[in-house]
Amino acid sequence: MSTSTFDHLTPEQIEEFGEEMDALRQRLVADLGEADAAYIRTVVKRQRQLEIAGRALFYLPPAWPAAVAALSLSKIFDNMEIGHNVMHGQYDWMGDPGLNSRMYEWDTVCPSEQWKYSHNYIHHTFTNILGKDRDIGYGILRMDEDQQWRPYYLGNPVYAFLLMVFFEWGVLLHDLEVERIAAGEKTWAETKHLHRGMLRKVRNQTLKDYLLFPAVTGPFFVPTLIGNATANLVRNVWAFNIIFCGHFPSGVATFSREETEDETRGQWYLRQLLGSANITGSRLFHVMTGNLSHQIEHHLFPDLPARRYPEIAPEVREICERYGLAYNTGPLRKQLGSVARKILRLALPTRTPSYDGPEVVGEPAAA
Amino acid sequence: MGLAQTLLRSRALEALTSPHGVDRYLEIANPMWAAREVRARVVDVRREVDVPGHPPVATITLQPTSTWRGHRAGQHVQLGVEVAGARRTTRVFSISSPDSRAGDRFTVTMRANPDAPRDRQSVSRYLVERAPVGTVVHLSQAQGEFVLPNRVPDHVVLISGGSGITPVMSMLRSLQRRTHRGRVTFLHYAQSPDHQIFAAELDEVRRSGWGIDVHLLHPELGDPALSPAYLERLVPGYRDVPTWACGPAPLMSAVHAAYDGSEALHVEYFKLGTARPDGGAAGEPADGTVSFARSGVDVGNDGGTLLEQAEAAGLAPESGCRMGICLTCTTRKTEGTVRNVLTGETSSQPDEDIRICVSVPCTSTALDL
Ligand code: FES
Predict the structure, then answer these.
(1) Contacts for B14-18 with beta carbons within 8 Å, 24 or more apart?
(2) Are A336 and A245 in contact (CB under 8 A)?
(3) Burial classification of residue A115, based on how many CB atoms lie within 10 Å of its CB (0-12 exposed, 13-18 middle, 19 or more buried)
(4) Average pLDDT along chain A
(5) Residue A105: C-alpha distances to residues A233, B24, B254 (Å)
(6) What keywords sit in the KW lines (chain B) (predicted)?
(7) Which chain A residues are Cβ-neighbours of B80 within 8 angstroms?
(8) Which of A48, A94, A124 lies at the smallest CB-CB distance from B25?
């Protein structure tokens, strides 16, 4: 495993840390109400307006860039601040079927049902446990020293680039575990229950973006088609970059199966904290990331409304400081640079035992 | 159905608005526009009964969206409101107005639920006491089999108690509108004349005759309680006369006893959404039973999480993280008070989705499992 920075804590201290997190959680739950409901409804409204505006502006050829911008933003809001968060059950308490984790379907090719399984269950429960959390490298990249190097990984940067460009398709195929099928650990037939849902969703999404909407703009069929594809691409690139900054900047810890067996609640919180990284930025930036710029707070409290993460971040950070725990954060450029370096570095076999630069970025609190 | 509705429900529009659906866009423009969902605007709230010291009763007039398919007298509707714009709570109410057609206005009549604590959300209390005209509520289509047949029999008996009068009032009004020529015996039990819902209208009906016998009874003031002897006196051979009855449990058991399994009797049960509002506090001894309705299994509550209790009972509900974050185990709770072990929050709402891995039952609880 890499960079464990909690050796100085006694088991009792770890549980105390967990209790502080639980208390924070309870305070937030008790406070949920009108403001949270109003917020998410406003975001949904803006997203729908942007979408309608984007679709309509394709009738006006000179406004093509504006149309693409509006549609890209719409898809980003839909997938991140609305889709991702609603599907975490963050707004289930509202009792609104339109904002319910079981019913929400998002504007991307991956069926929400399948994503919820691999994301809410696998990734959020087994965060950063090698061999369990399939989000470490998504089965195609080498994102951790402890992943055994193979010549295949020489292509690491190329695979990462392709995953970025085709991100929504990568997310769609995630559940198939193609790499395990290739390795003979799983058969194609075992993925059969996923196929129908995938095909239906892919059909609906491609029909809409690549046939129907271009068709209804009549003579502008081709510009609309290209515009829609561009909007999907923009969303792919944005989502990929934000998400990769969540767990892969250097200094983020990974864990082994053994050390996380029989984990207590305090240890679980600790793993969530040490396995995530934040990005600093403006308010608009946070909203555009679906508040995943507060990946740490999100991993501590995945089912609480994301708009609360910035609000509690100072408190979480203060608690971390008291326990001498690293709180990994930094501006987008820094976190991205760190991720990019890691992708390149891990394409080659690990040069033991040295590594370039300090492992813990951000401002680790002094122990 | 107008051209607009046909268009709104077309496959083409559905494909274009996928995956969200047409309604998610329409509601932004105007909550009263809908292609499939049903909503309504409150157009009038009228107090029916207002006795100091007792919960008031009011009739709410609703203008539904054009998606409302109408109702048959005796049916009920699920009505959801968002108090203060946040949590939506849904309850079932009987419709009190006569049969309605698609898009027609209709009324629901309800008593403000006296058991609901002030700070919690009570749909009836909100609608009766606070909802301003213009409030938009969420509806289901009309539901229920407690309805008059298309060919109304010559003689009909309608029995009700308390606010159970609403569905039979809808029937009575429909019979009048359909110019039913037969006889109607209308029996209603209330606490006192002051508590009588629809008093003026019933008085009018009684005086105008038209083959409708209205009996308003107040047993607390000495009127006869419902008994076979009393029914026999009013309606000789009543067991064979088609009868519709709706009211509180004691009245309903008297009705059942009096009709003794007769096929002429039709009843409506109210599922009262008022489980113990106090719930149970942490550390209280576990009691009650846990019923897994779909599997037909009942077990004694052992105080563990519902997921553990289900597994101990030999069921295999879906689960993932077992710590409340992945939502895999979400199950509908139809009855009972449960406590969330993460937050300590208790909730008693019927028909609520809960994460069974972090919920322990405080009272007898029923799950759709
Ligand atoms: S099993 Fe994951 S929320 Fe219950």
Answers:
(1) B15/A204, B15/A207, B15/A208, B15/A212, B16/A208, B16/A212, B16/A213, B16/A216, B18/A204, B18/A205, B18/A207, B18/A208
(2) yes
(3) buried
(4) 92
(5) 20, 12, 50
(6) 2Fe-2S, FAD, Flavoprotein, Iron, Iron-sulfur, Metal-binding, Oxidoreductase
(7) 95
(8) A48
Domain range list for chain A: 11-345
**Closest chain A residue to B27, measured at CA:** A45
Query: How far lies A261's CA from each of A274, A325, B321, in Å?
Result: 17, 21, 14
If you write DSSP's letter for every residue of B161-182 in order, what string do you get? EGGGHHHHHHHHHHHHHTT--S
| pLDDT tens digit sequence for B24-82 | 999 999 999 999 999 999 999 999 988 888 889 999 999 999 999 999 999 999 899 98
Q: What is the C-alpha separation between A269 and A201, in angstroms, rounded?
A: 35
* Residues in chain A where the model's pLDDT stays below 70: 1-4, 351-367
Identify the three-state secondary structure at position B100. Answer: strand
- Picking from B16, B80, B353, the nearest residue to A208 by CB comes out as B16
Q: What is the C-alpha separation between A175 and A166, in angstroms, rounded? A: 16
| Paired tokens of A300 | 């501590």
Q: Structural domains in chain B? A: 37-139 (2.40.30.10), 155-271 (3.40.50.80), 289-367 (3.10.20.30)
Q: Is B355 in the pocket of ligand 1 (CB under 6 A)?
A: yes
Pocket perturbation via mutation, ligand 1, pick of B340, B357, B367 by most ligand atoms within 8 A of CB: B357
Q: Does B346 touch chain A (CB under 8 A)?
A: no
A22 and B CB contact within 8 Å: yes
User: To test the ligand 1 pocket, which listed residue (B308, B311, B321, B369) has its Cβ within 8 A of the most ligand atoms?
Assistant: B321
> What whole-number distance in Å separates Cα of residue A365 and Cα of residue B340?
34
pLDDT digits (tens, 9 = 90+) for B87-106: 888 888 999 999 999 999 99
Chain A contact for B11, CB < 8 A? no
Structural tokens at position A283 = 């308010």
Q: What tens digit of pLDDT does each residue of A117-171 get?
A: 999 999 999 999 998 998 998 889 999 988 999 999 999 999 999 999 999 999 9
Distance CA B8, CA B30 (A): 14
ipTM given for this complex:
0.87
CA distance A153 to A144: 12
* B19 close to A (CB below 8 A): yes
User: Cβ–Cβ of B80/A201 closer than 8 Å?
Assistant: no
Encode pLDDT of B287-317 as tens digits.
789 999 998 899 999 889 999 999 999 998 9
Write out residues 224-283 of A within 8 Å (CB-CB) of B: 265, 268
C-alpha B333 – ligand 1 centre gap (Å): 15
> Residue B342: CB within 6 Å of ligand 1?
no
